[in-house]
Amino acid sequence: MEYDLIWSLTGLVLLLLGIAGCFLPVIPGPPLCWASLLILQLHKEPPFTSDFLIVWAAVVIVVTLLDYYVPVWGTKKFGGTRYGNWGSAIGVIAGIFIFPPFGIIIGPFLGAFIGEKIGGKDNRQALRSAWGSFAGFLAGTIMKLAVSLIMGYYFIINAFNL
Question: Which residues contact 122 (CB under 8 A, 6 or more apart)?
């Protein structure tokens, strides 16, 4: 009994960290949520099939790769350059520490704008690139959150027999 409780609580901590990781770029959100499902497999009776875990592992890999690609694509789609991409990446990290919790939203936008200005773009072009970066960041965050919440649903109903 204690064994199951320890594993369930460990999985719950991983799940909560994973959901937080959807917003914090230093924490790998969906992989931690998937790890919570894997932890649940250590129970006396594994709740998931191998196929279920393999499919979710594939989903996590795709979402993780897209999370890196979508903001870059958004920036480029709106006329941004690598200066905007770098600025956006730096802005996410700086935003977390400088003005939490809103910095995670404002940071990529300001970072892309400043990056494009450094790269020689005028205000209009830099603003357009910043919007693209923000849209890409937002799309990636929503995608990660949706996948993580679905895995969270499976974890909760199986860990606590709901």
Answer: none
